[in-house]
User: Which sequence fits this backbone?
């Protein structure tokens, strides 16, 4: 039986407005223990921002994280997928666009996120769970 994106995705999604400062986004990531956040304008997905985006596109250049918005640093117009699409289609989109995660959108609204790790766990249930091997903060 073909698995659908809704069967493997992480339901729910952390979302910020385009105007949110990078400091706000980083605090949200810390508080919710996530490494990626969907950037939205109203109910529309306009970007995706990762902890790496903040590090490479702002902090590494010495930019004050209070002076830049999520919209100015995010990857704009991310590739999205619907929850009722086959999981294999998500994998194909990730390969084609060289990305590791896709916002899952239903009726134009973000409802989840599917990552390369989600798809790997789907193929091999023995694969390490999300966060395995991650050190506790400060270690």
Assistant:
């Amino acid at each position: 039986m073909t698995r659908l994106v809704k069967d493997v995705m992480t339901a729910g999604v952390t979302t910020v407005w385009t105007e949110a400062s990078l400091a706000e986004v980083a605090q949200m990531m810390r508080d919710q223990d996530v490494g990626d956040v969907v950037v939205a304008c109203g109910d529309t997905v306009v970007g995706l921002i990762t902890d790496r985006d903040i590090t490479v596109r702002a902090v590494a250049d010495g930019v004050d994280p209070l002076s830049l918005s999520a919209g100015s640093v995010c990857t704009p117009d991310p590739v999205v997928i619907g929850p009722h699409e086959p999981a294999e289609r998500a994998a194909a989109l990730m390969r084609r666009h060289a990305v590791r995660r896709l916002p899952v959108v239903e009726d134009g609204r973000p409802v989840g996120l599917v990552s390369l790790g989600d798809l790997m766990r789907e193929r091999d249930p023995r694969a390490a769970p999300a966060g395995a091997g991650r050190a506790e903060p400060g270690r």
Q: What stands out?
A: The chain has one domain: 5-123. The longest strand covers residues 44-50. The radius of gyration is 15 Å. The chain has six helices and seven strands.
